[in-house]
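2 proteins. here.
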Amino acid sequence: MSAPVFGLRKTWVDTVPGIELVQIHYTWSPPGTPPDWAGAEEQVLTGGTGPLRTAVLEVPRTVGGASDYALHHFFFVVGGAGRAASPVYTEDIVAREVTYEDPAGQYTAVGLVWSAVQEPPEPGVPNYTSTTMDGLPFESPGAAPEHADIYEFVRAQPLPHVFRGRVWGVRGTAVRYGYHLIRQGLPDPADDAESWTDNGGRGWTVTL
């Protein structure tokens, strides 16, 4: 099974005409550790008719078991004037916990859909996190019981039910999120349902 990742958008703005290609090279390391470029990833940034180019990087949610780590990247630019590399940029990737409280015990699972708050015209990159409910005897979706049994596990827990998940991004930036509310495994399958709530389209935000 591949390690969990999340999507992180990076941008470049052409400052002179005639740029033919922009690549981003990136890698990660524990905090305070220099980058090892031997195993770095690379991606071509794409754009439309304007000077803005973007790429969505798939970066890990944990490095060495830790959710906070350093992301290193630089740009390689090819144009009519030759080739050049930008300085290396290092950013702290951090995680923050987000909770959902279900006072009536309506839901058997809750997901988080989230993305970094981007400045127009850059669209956000949607990411998803499955939360864990306090008190359940399993810690991850991979160890959870089948849908037909999960309702009984959830109903046995005292109210309110609290679901916890994490969102990731660059330290100091804002993440906007909403909730995916799931009810499944009920005695009458017709009562199973799912819905989305996003604070009237505004979402909720947390600063990392």
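next one coming up
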Amino acid sequence: MTLPQAAQAPATTNDRAAVVLAAGHDDASRELITRPLGEATVVELAVANVRKIVADDRIVVVVAPGDTTVRGLLGDDLTYVEQQDLPGTGGAVLAARSTIEAFATPAREVLVAYADTPLLRSESLLGLLTRHTLKGADLSLLAAVVTEDLPTYGRIVREDGEITAILEEEDRPADAGTGGAPAEVNVGAYVASPGLLFAELEAMLAGGEHRLTELARRVIAKHKSISSYRIYDTDEVRGINTPEELQEAADILLKRLFMPKKNTDTKIVFGTGGWRAIIGEGYTLANVRRLCQAIANETVRKGIDGLGVVIGGDRRFLSRESAVAAAEVFAGNNIPVTLLPDDVPTPLVTFAAPYLGAAYGIIVTSSHNPPEWNGMKVFRQDGSLPLDDETDRYQDEANALSVDDVITLDLAVARKAGLVVDKVLTEPYVDAIEKIVDVDAVRGSDLRVIVDPMYGTSQLTLGTILNDMRVRSEFIHASHNPLFGGIAPAPDLQRLSTLISMIKQGDGRYDLGMATDGDSDRIGIVDETGEYISTNDLLLLLYWYLHEFRGEKGGVVRNLATTHLLDRLAAHFGEESREVKVGFKHVTAGMEEIGAVLGGESSGGLTVRGWILGKDGIFACALVVEMLARTGKKISELREMIYEITGRLYTLEAGVDSTPEMRVAVPRRLEADPLTHIGPYPVVSISHLDGTKIVLENDNWALLRFSGTEPVLRMFVEADSPEKATELLDWLKGFVTAGV
């Protein structure tokens, strides 16, 4: 049964056709559409949006006579016709008539688009096509709601919601601007049946009218039905007619690159700490399976599939289901799986990869991100994080896979076949820590500690270690709560208020407060008075303790957002210090290069030589307890002792939501106007190793860096007085928000 026209289902890519106008009106306009824009050219981007909704073999590109440049850019999959004798944009569309009418499957509708509108989104073109069919219209046009004056676009006039006129520039009074009020304009993309489209254009040309914009006016005059699809992002409206407009378009593409991805974007993107995304948007079980298939492919290609993989998950929503889904993918690819039951800390998986000799260790977690996030971290056979070139391969291959490319084996079948083996590795992990940390030295110290695992995964392992040390310990926020009490499980000053309050109210009851983040690879420390101890200070204490008390000689590695006091302490010891990019994989790589005894970052991650090649909050907590027991000193006493060696620097940090505009404007301003001073303080040097680090005199510095895991611009400063640190941070805040 044939449905009435207004009830027809939207056409598919196989019964649509498209005409893309790329002939231009002169040599300059033709040259402009072949210029680079982002990673492609203007015409390639414009046609790419059409290709998403119309099959390649049903797209006709109208080019100028003898033009081979556009063909060379777009390839041979499309059909090209030359605009010979027919003038204007109306004539350009008519030039495609015979080609479209010759299609084996007749076109129900024809989309007309321009090659100089690369900023139009494919979603807008799809909205236009879909609305045309659902409305049963004779002609549909793409409209934009704007508040700025765009005099070259026809102004749409409506009565009772229906389009009754389109006023071109010459039809409007000279002062007919929008005045800041919303106005609706005709963007210039159209959809119509081939019969109506070509008949009206032929009649237009016979009457001496060559402009495609006249088409809508003719349809209105004949009282035929006309509909529109409205777009509200005025950036889409911008065509490329001048070099200046090309530069504006480049800025817009950059802004789009940094916009938060919505649920229609299923791309997997690795940051500094693995892949993370919002649950239900980027983070789905389908994406988990695609990523695991890509890693499985890499495992087979490398010939290490026989080593198997080890998989675990933390306490977040979907973590257990994701671990099972991952196991089924690897089993489906004939790769043995060790599946860790229940929830486990990330450092345990980091440990498990080399312990089992597995090709990879995989943990489902998004670390300290808010509760609505989840993700995955991947560790190599030695327990280290893959470097950027490796994760780029994983994500690129995963994004190229469809769900139909994923090979799975049901978990029950895989278990029965022995491809998936459930194994508990808590005991080997704890035993390995206790071989490095001096458990016996702690016994008898009568230490009393309070621990906040922040509803994460450290209670079992850290609790076992503290019990073995005979430390009197008390845990708070230890239950399984995937909402993490409504906050991001990051062990920083703002989120450890309960721990701090309990120590202060304990009136000397506790010698130490410790915290770990959601997946237990970061540490937070509160001293016996209830003062939060920054990780910068903790790294100083541990480096001194390892080097001087345990006699473990060697340098130190820190990321560029971590205190320069570590450099001073290393110089005091006659050791090397090294600065690396943010991301713990860079810290461990630097440690291996210089044989460092300690590596860490101000955000709470650290490890020591001889332990795993990843950060470990559980191990760090155990080492801090050992330090207090063996030195017989409080945290506050140790810190003052170290300051006598290094002097004092004061660190502050802040973060602001990084808008797409900020992502474009801040680097451009830094490049256009190199800094010589921050306020009254002269700049000694500027590093672009990772973000922009501005080094001042006396180890003072300021850092601007866009986060690799969250849409945040992070600002860090270190100065020789609290007042100066505040002054530097205020200057950074003003700089990054100015004009944005």
